[in-house]
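For the sake of transparency, this paper describes our internal protein records without simplification. Because each token names a local backbone shape, the row as a whole describes the fold. One such record is reproduced below, unchanged from the form in which we store it:
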Amino acid sequence: MLRDVDWAILMAHAQGGDREAYRRLLKEISPYLRSLAAASHRDSRDIEDTVQDVLLSVHSIRHTYDPARPFGPWLIAIARRRIVDRLRRQGRSALHETPLTPEHETFATAEANYAEEGADASTVRDAVERLPPGQREAIKLMKLQEMSLRQAAAASGMSIGALKVATHRGLKNLRKLLAGRGDAP
């Protein structure tokens, strides 16, 4: 196998410190490793993860390769071990997974979405205007204009701590106002 000889030469040079030979070796063996992984995995993410696992293993144990021996069997042994490791991990995690059913759906029924349907833009604007001035300004800057804490603090003249408190209290009062309890602030 000519390619095996080329890879063995590249690995020997890489063990001697030749970075270019090592880079070329990793580049050349990657498609081969991908084909080995594809024989055991269907998901392209699993294939790529397996290739990366093999490349990491090759990197960490490259000093164990004996240049007097064929490179191919050494590489295949590493690849097969990493493929089996990934299959075992998948098998173990599959044992702990529960298939999702419609009962697991958070918003499966229309009743769960009534709160969102009741609050239109004008209702929210009216509720924000009913907040105390500090809370109203904090909500407008932080939530409606989506400013960062620093930007909102600079624009309002409030400290970051005061802005956090005002935003928290403002959101709490908005929830009460939007839930129909008009006595919030």
